[in-house]
Structures are given as C-alpha cells and as structure tokens.
From TrEMBL:
GO CC entries: plasma membrane
Pfam families xref list: Glycos_transf_2
A GO MF term: glycosyltransferase activity
Ranges that cross the membrane: 165-185, 229-250, 262-289
Keywords on record: Glycosyltransferase, Membrane, Transferase, Transmembrane, Transmembrane helix
Membrane topology listed for this record: Multi-pass membrane protein
Domain Glycosyltransferase 2-like: 4-159
InterPro entries linked: Glyco_trans_2-like, Glycosyltransferase_2, Nucleotide-diphossugar_trans
Source organism of the structure: Winogradskyella ouciana
UniProt subcellular location: Membrane
Protein name as annotated: Glycosyltransferase
C-alpha cells in the first residue's frame, strides 16, 4: 500500500517545519513505509520552495511541483492530485488549522468499512467572528440553494481518498474548478468526520473577495438554476409591467387629466429596467465566459519543474 499526501504552498514557510514533523509522525504511527509528500508551489512569494528543497536532501519522500505562477488553490490541489501515485491519497492544507494527525482518524474510519471510498473533514461549528460565521452560512446556503448537487456545509480541504475514487474525480476535466462540488458530484460512498480547527498563526490568504469569487464559481460551475431564475423573474417583471400599464390606462380613462404620468415615473422605471438588464447580462456573461474557457482547452496549470 502506498500513501500520497498532497498539499499546496502559498506563504506557507512559517508552517512547514511543524507540518512535516506532524505528518511524518502520523504516517509512522500508521505503520506506512511507502509514501510520498507532494508539495505544490502555487507561486508562493516566500522561501517555501527553498526550505523544501533543503528538506528534500534529508527526506527523500518529498516531491515538489513548482508551478510557473500562482494559479489558485483549487488548481494547485488538482495538479498535486493528478501527480499522486498512491493507493490512498490524503489532501490537506499545511497551515495547521487542521492537525495532520487527522490522517490517523481518516484511516481508522476507512478501515472500519471497506465500502467507504472517501473520509472527509467538516466543522460542526464555524469559528471566527460574527461576520465571518454569517458569511460562511450565506456561502453554503447559496451553494446548495442554486446548485444541482447537495454539498455538506462547512466541509474542509482535508480528506482521505481511495485511488478508484480519485481517478473518477480527475476524469471530469473541468476547466472551471470548484473541487468541493466536483468531489460530491463524483459520487461514491463518502463519510464525514467532525474536526475542531485550531488557530492560524497568520492571517488567512482567503480574503472575503476570494470567498465571494469562490461562491460565484461554485454556483455557476454546477448549476443552471440562476439562468432559470432569471427567466422566471423576467416573466414576472413582464407580467407586472403589463398589469401596471393596464392599471394606469384604466385610471387615466376614469380620472382623465387628474392623473399625471410625468418624467419622474418614466426615469425611475427606466433605471429599474436598466439595472435588471445589466444584472441579467452580467450573469449570462459569466456563463458564456465559462464556456469560452472550457473550449479553449488550455491546461489548468503549467508546471515549471518537478523536484522528485
């Protein structure tokens, strides 16, 4: 049995020493001798790459995929998963918010039932302040409201996967990545384990802007529901407009010159229509761009060098 541990690098230097120590300790405790530690350098601006190359002189199991630039967390994870050669693949962030010893829990759960294909981590209760927790709730509500598949809320990156499942996941070939959705669209028997996340030493690189982009990516990559909702909203607005015209026309007939249909009402209506049309076109544009990106058939990442 071979184990592949996959993680990505972006401003990760401060975590690497402790992360490597803990993940090696977990692997030793499991009695696994055949393993690889795959680090994907996603254009990290610090000395993460240099540190790992120095560590590789001592720990030969370390493999580093050095991407040509920053492509994004999900694309970097995908490249690491594509490279992994293990019968079991453990995906984890190295910021130590989730302990590398979670690997042991995953193996114990998977070994309890040979029908389990994936063991993933999730938060029973989100940490952070009120705004962060509220934003998280909105994020998962929106994804499950507008997506065609059900994604468990508060899932984490960390998961242990059997190779058959991983090959099916990688066969999807999406250019517009939202791995959280792809992992559940793939199916198979997946079981969640609650995880208590620790405190991060540094500020998260996942800004609110990135989280919003991720939500838009998630919804538009896995569902046509927003377009359906636009269609029905358009019908509703059309119907209300027709009814309003009929109402004003009847009122004008009854009250005659007492009813003034001035410029103010026309300007307000035009602004409302302009806003609605702009929103509709913007959403349609997002979908068209995703189609354009998919048919370009570019690789999701470019690997500058592999240090094996």
């Amino acid at each position: 049995m071979k184990l592949s541990v996959v993680t990505t690098l972006y401003k990760s230097e401060i975590f690497l020493e402790e992360f490597i120590s803990q993940i090696l300790s977990a692997i030793i405790e499991l009695g696994i001798n055949d393993y690889e530690l795959i680090f994907v350098n996603d254009g990290s601006p610090d000395n993460s790459l240099k540190y790992l190359l120095d560590q590789k002189k001592v720990i030969s199991n370390i493999v580093v995929l050095d991407l040509s630039r920053n492509f994004g967390h999900h694309y970097a994870m995908q490249s690491g998963l594509e490279y992994a050669k293990g019968d079991f693949v453990f995906l984890i962030d190295n910021d130590l918010e989730t302990s590398p010893y979670f690997l042991i829990d995953c193996f114990n759960k998977m070994n309890s039932n040979d029908q389990i294909d994936v063991v993933y981590g999730y938060q029973e209760k989100r940490g952070g302040g009120f705004f962060y927790r509220s934003a998280g709730k909105v994020f998962w509500w929106a994804i499950n409201k507008f997506s065609d598949i059900r994604i468990p809320p508060n899932i984490l990156t960390e998961r242990l996967m059997r190779r058959d499942y991983l090959l099916s996941l990688l066969s999807l070939g999406d250019a517009n990545l939202f791995l959280g959705g792809m992992m559940y669209w793939t199916g198979y028997n997946q079981v969640g384990l609650p995880v208590s996340k620790g405190l991060r030493k540094t500020k998260s690189t996942y800004t609110m802007h990135k989280r919003l982009d991720l939500m838009i990516q998630a919804v538009t990559s896995f569902s046509g529901k927003p377009l359906e909702y636009l269609f029905y909203l358009g019908l509703f607005i059309t119907l209300m407009s027709i009814l309003s015209i009929i109402y004003l026309f009847i009122k004008k007939i009854i009250y005659g010159n007492e009813i003034y249909l001035g410029w103010t009402s026309l300007v307000v209506i035009n602004i409302l229509i302009l806003g609605i049309i702009s929103t509709f076109l913007g959403l349609i544009g997002i979908y068209l761009f995703k189609v354009f990106k998919q048919v370009q058939n570019r690789p999701n990442v470019i690997i500058r060098k592999i240090y094996e």
